[in-house]
């Protein structure tokens, strides 16, 4: 590889950014297990959607750490993988939401609200740590998008919890799960576009 292949220079190998990614990876992996357990306990499909988001993000941060000091083309290809997995998880959440919509079980709003608040705190901290690194290549952009989406998703889960408590219906939970899934798909498209642009740029260099 020539130096032209890695156009971010020292920024890519930034030690502080790498440390931040490790911290956020650990937080996301931990919250994935917490939300999966809480989802089964409470019967909330919105919590399951948010848990899947945490899993997807943990995997994405692991990929980001691996390609951090790699050439632009490799980082762009990693972003394509991220976008693909994000889109796949979005479709899985939609499928699960349709299945849950056929049931009459009302999820436990208090569990949804408590776990949603915990997850929101974790993601606000993550987004704050990543804010200054949100611009650059598609790989960094995708990391920032993941944390931003998580915070939005957590707020939606808390809104769903309030809706379930007020209506004693499972429909607010289903609706929020759909919204989170659409957010997955929209972000996947954004990451794909950035990555394809970088691959084209790498071929021309």
Low-confidence stretches: 1-13
**Terminal residue distance:** 12 Å
Q: Which architecture per CATH?
A: Up-down Bundle
How would you describe the oligomerization state of the chains in this entry? single chain
CATH topology: Alpha-lytic protease prodomain-like
Describe this structure in words.
The protein is mainly α and 205 residues long. It has one domain (12-204): Alpha-lytic protease prodomain-like (Up-down Bundle). It has six helices and no strands. The model is unreliable at 1-13 (pLDDT under 50).
Write the layout of secondary structure elements.
Layout: H1 15-42, H2 45-67, H3 72-101, H4 109-130, H5 138-167, H6 171-204
Helix pairs in contact: 1-2, 1-4, 2-3, 2-5, 2-6, 3-6, 4-5, 5-6
């Amino acid at each position: 590889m020539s130096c032209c292949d890695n156009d971010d220079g020292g920024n890519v190998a930034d030690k502080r950014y790498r440390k931040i990614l490790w911290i956020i990876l650990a937080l996301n992996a931990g919250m994935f297990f917490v939300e999966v357990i809480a989802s089964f306990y409470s019967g909330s499909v919105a919590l399951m959607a948010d848990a899947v988001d945490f899993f997807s993000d943990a995997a994405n941060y692991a990929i980001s750490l691996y390609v951090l000091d790699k050439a632009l083309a490799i980082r762009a290809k990693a972003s394509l993988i991220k976008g693909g997995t994000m889109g796949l998880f979005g479709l899985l959440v939609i499928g699960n939401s349709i299945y849950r919509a056929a049931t009459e079980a009302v999820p436990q709003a208090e569990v949804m609200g408590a776990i949603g608040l915990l997850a929101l705190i974790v993601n606000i901290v993550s987004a704050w740590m990543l804010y200054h690194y949100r611009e650059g290549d598609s790989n960094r952009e995708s990391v920032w998008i993941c944390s931003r989406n998580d915070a939005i998703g957590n707020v939606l889960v808390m809104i769903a919890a309030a809706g379930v408590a007020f209506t004693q219906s499972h429909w607010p939970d289903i609706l929020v799960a759909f919204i989170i899934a659409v957010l997955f798909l929209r972000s996947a498209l954004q990451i794909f576009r950035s990555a394809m642009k970088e691959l084209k740029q790498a071929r021309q260099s």
